[in-house]
Amino acid sequence: MLLKSVFLITLFFFFFLFPLSTSSATSPPATVCIVGSGIAGSSLAHFLRRYSLPSSSRIIMFDRNPVVGGRMATVTIAGHTFEAGASILHPKNYHAANFTEMYKLGRKKPVRSESSISLAIWDGQRFVFKTMSVESKSPLVQKIVSLANSVYMLFHYGFSLLKMDNFVEDMLSKFLKYYESFETRPIFETVDEMLKWAGLYNLTTRTLEEELFEVGLSPLLVKELVTVITRINYGQNVDINGLAGAVSLAGSGGGLWAVEGGNWRMAAGLINSSDVELHLLEEITSISYLGKYYELSSTHGKTYTCEVSVIATPLDEVNIQFAPRISIPKRNLQHTHATFVRGLLNPVYFGMKAVSEIPELVGTIEDVDIPFSSISVLKQHNETDMTYKIFSRKVMDDALLDDIFSARTDTIRINWAAYPHYNAPEVFAPFILDSWHLYYVNAFENAASTMETSAVAAENVARLILSRLFGDGPRSSPNCSSDEEILHSDL
Ligand SMILES: Cc1cc2nc3c(=O)[nH]c(=O)nc-3n(C[C@H](O)[C@H](O)[C@H](O)COP(=O)(O)OP(=O)(O)OC[C@H]3O[C@@H](n4cnc5c(N)ncnc54)[C@H](O)[C@@H]3O)c2cc1C
């Protein structure tokens, strides 16, 4: 056991300290320009370096924001900092786990992952489902409450819960194929190909609701718990595609985690260690192919020439002019309004006598008259002073907040162009946007939008770039048995 651990740790360091291939070490350098410093752009830079982009090659990265990380952003309200966008990671998010390990970042448990967290489902009039909660901090008491809540959940939803679990596990086992070694894992030119290879494509052709009814879930479970989860994670109903739905359900399981100090720190670590020339507060306005290279123009009135250009942001709401023009399927983004409130909920709004009767996480079913998707406690400062996060499809105006809250000292509103508005069947943009070297990592977001899926897509695009630039592509070192083995070790 000890020997195995030592072996895996050695492999891990070998894997990250040394490039996997020397095949392109003698190839001519190329400048790669990346638009976006979120997890897609930053992990792309990392994988390009790791897979032997010639060391004299430049990586230039642009972000219109003043900080790196994109949708991995924090918000500070009344002196306390919380995740404002992407907040939770799944235990099987192996790239994120490796990044966190590589940069010696700490892990924390997000509030939502506490097994003892109390949950209620609000239908606009009353709580149709409500778990028990206790004040006690004793781990034993919390365990007992958590167990009692599981039994209650099983009683309310029946064995459909197990079928839901199997549905998620099946998706996860297929997704794990993306960590296999290069020997068994091809380089994908299209998202369709990438999904078909893993056995995940069919899930994107039907809605989550269709998929769940087929595996025998009860209408009650779909209408209540499943809807609550998709509304929290994607601000949408159960008519999202089955893969995004399965990913969303996986994000409600156990063992969830987040990076101490903010998930954006993964992007910071990846960029700092990948020899990237970073241009913050600089928006790219046009990308023109001039034969052999691209010219990128920015809001600073500057131009940059690069052999390879990579779009690492959704193209749906950005204003980049392409010459020649590119054509991708039309896609709408789902806007999620994240409202952070320091204050206290009004129990009367929920038909309760005391705030303590309102669970820490209130989810909602699908009803146009319910003005929010979820309200959760981020921090309890004391019994009458809390910080909450509200997700909604529309802006939460002051009048509405004054109905829902009895006291409110601070309010911060963020309107996120959050993720694709999912459909079934999904139509995917290509990874390669022209016949040359213009790439689009976020084409994969139509399958599902998470930090890990962005990193998985970026890893494939890094291999695609290297194979198309240098012909041979990156290869696993004979000393390195497989990515999967390393990525699956407990890091
Ligand atoms: C509210 C919310 C909650 C979420 N919760 C989770 C969660 O719990 N777990 C999870 O895994 N995922 C979650 N997600 C999804 C997750 O945030 C995204 O899938 C992921 O962060 C996408 O990363 P990215 O690098 O692909 O894009 P982004 O993070 O959006 O990065 C793109 C970057 O490109 C920059 N940019 C855009 N246009 C230009 C331009 N023209 N010039 C220069 N720069 C430009 C942007 O400023 C941005 O920084 C959530 C998202 C939101 C909004």
Automatic annotation (TrEMBL):
Residues 142-469 form the Prenylcysteine lyase domain. GO terms for molecular function: prenylcysteine oxidase activity. Gene3D superfamilies: FAD/NAD(P)-binding domain. One of its GO terms (biological process) is prenylated protein catabolic process. Its cofactor is FAD. Keywords: FAD, Flavoprotein, Glycoprotein, Oxidoreductase, Signal. Residues 1-25 form the signal peptide. It holds the Pfam family Prenylcys_lyase. The keyword Ribonucleoprotein does not apply. PANTHER family: FARNESYLCYSTEINE LYASE, PRENYLCYSTEINE LYASE DOMAIN-CONTAINING PROTEIN. Belongs to the prenylcysteine oxidase family. This is Prenylcysteine lyase domain-containing protein. It comes from Erythroxylum novogranatense.
